[in-house]
């Protein structure tokens, strides 16, 4: 059941059992002058019931030379296999995070402006 936690949000909406949903994520991407560095920040805001977070580090038995992303670290919950916060750091230097809602609404806003 813990693995379905992200799906329960959608199911609650589908069946009209929506509680006041104050949880959301925010992210920031900032490029330093002269492209010297890239700063990335992510925050997940939820209720107290979601406060029991832990940092997980998965190291896979891959050859480092062939697969640079042989390990990942992410915030998660006890008993969960994945990051429900959708913020993952890989040893390859890749950062994975999701802010779909903002991008979707920004896209809709741009389309609305173009119609005028």
Write a brief caption for the model.
With 116 residues, this protein is an alpha+beta fold. Helix content is 22%, strand content 30%.
How many domains, in number, for the residues? 1
- Summing up helix and strand content along with how strands pair, one would put the structural category as alpha+beta
How widely separated are the two ends? Answer: 47 Å
Shape: extended
- What integer is the average pLDDT? 78
Strand order of the largest sheet: 3-4-5-6
Task: Please bin the fraction of helical residues.
Answer: 10-25%
Family: Belongs to the phospholipase B-like family.
Keywords: Glycoprotein, Hydrolase, Lipid degradation, Lipid metabolism, Membrane, Signal, Transmembrane, Transmembrane helix
Transmembrane segments: 87-107
Function: Putative phospholipase.
């Amino acid at each position: 059941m813990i693995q379905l936690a992200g799906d329960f949000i959608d199911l609650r909406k589908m069946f009209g059992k929506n509680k006041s949903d104050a949880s959301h994520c925010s992210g920031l991407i900032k490029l330093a002058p002269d492209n010297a560095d890239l700063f990335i920040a992510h925050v997940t805001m939820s209720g107290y019931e979601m406060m029991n977070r832990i940092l997980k580090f998965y190291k896979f038995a891959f050859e480092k030379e062939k697969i640079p992303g042989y390990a990942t670290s992410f915030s998660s919950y006890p008993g969960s296999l994945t990051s429900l916060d959708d913020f993952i750091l890989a040893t390859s230097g890749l950062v994975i995070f999701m802010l779909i809602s903002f991008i979707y609404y920004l896209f809709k806003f741009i389309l609305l402006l173009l119609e005028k």
